[in-house]
């Protein structure tokens, strides 16, 4: 218990500028979990009794397909948020994974889950484009 408090204190003292980002990440995390909970809840409420009309049934299937996609997207984002929080805890946050240089703070604030600086992200995107068009077409 005491050890945890000490660790928290140490981190806050070493990286006070990341406090804001940690709050953003935790708020995003809470928001996703709340949204996910609502999707699950509405799914439970959407019983066949509420949708006796076949037309409505089709709509319900579309809604379910949509909520499944949403969950997949949310799962990915949640994973990224957890990884970012891990990096914060371990003092690795804000360091580009590709070039080991600090990531621009403006970029971190706009997109806290990022692991690449702008230069490396741009390079990665160019690489992806090249891979999609190997002949440079
Ligand atoms: Zn970089």
Summed up, the helix count is 5
Q: Helix share of residues? A: over 70%
The counted number of beta strands is: 0
Which structural class fits the helix and strand makeup? mainly alpha
Number of structurally distinct domains: 2
Integer-rounded radius of gyration: 21 Å
* Bound compounds: zinc ion
**How is the biggest beta sheet arranged?**
none
Order of helices and strands: HHHHH
**Average pLDDT:** 79
What percent of residues are in strands?
A: under 5%
Uncertain regions: pLDDT < 50 for 5+ in a row? 6-14
| C-alpha termini separation | 60 Å
3D shape: flat
In a nutshell, what does this entry contain?
The chain is an all-alpha fold and 137 residues long. The chain has helices spanning 2-14, 19-45, 54-90, 105-110, 118-132. The chain contains five helices and no strands.
Describe the structure in your own words.
The protein is mainly α. It folds into 2 domains: 2-93, no CATH class; 95-137, no CATH class. Helix content is 72%, strand content 0%. It is built from 5 helices and no strands. It has helices at residues 2-14, 19-45, 54-90, 105-110, 118-132. Helix 2 (19-45) packs antiparallel against helix 3. It is flat. The N and C termini lie far apart (60 Å). Mean pLDDT is 79; it is low at 6-14. It binds zinc ion. Zinc ion (ZN) binds at residues 96, 98-99, 101, 116-117, 119-120.
SSE diagram, text form:
Layout: H1 2-14, H2 19-45, H3 54-90, H4 105-110, H5 118-132
Zinc ion (ZN) binds at residues 96, 98-99, 101, 116-117, 119-120.
Keywords:
single chain; mainly alpha; 5 helices; 0% strand; binds zinc ion
């Amino acid at each position: 218990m005491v050890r945890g408090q000490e660790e928290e204190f140490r981190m806050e003292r070493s990286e006070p500028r990341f406090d804001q980002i940690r709050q953003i990440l935790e708020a995003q995390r809470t928001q996703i979990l709340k949204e996910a909970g609502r999707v699950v809840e509405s799914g439970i409420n959407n019983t066949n009794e509420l949708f006796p009309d076949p037309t409505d049934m089709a709509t319900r299937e579309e809604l379910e397909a949509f909520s499944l996609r949403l969950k997949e997207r949310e799962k990915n984002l949640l994973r990224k948020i957890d990884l970012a929080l891990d990096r914060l805890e371990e003092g690795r946050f804000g360091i580009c994974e590709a070039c080991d240089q600090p990531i621009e703070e403006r970029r971190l604030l706009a997109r806290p889950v990022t692991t690449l600086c702008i230069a490396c992200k741009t390079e990665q995107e160019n690489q992806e484009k090249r891979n999609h068009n190997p002949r440079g077409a």
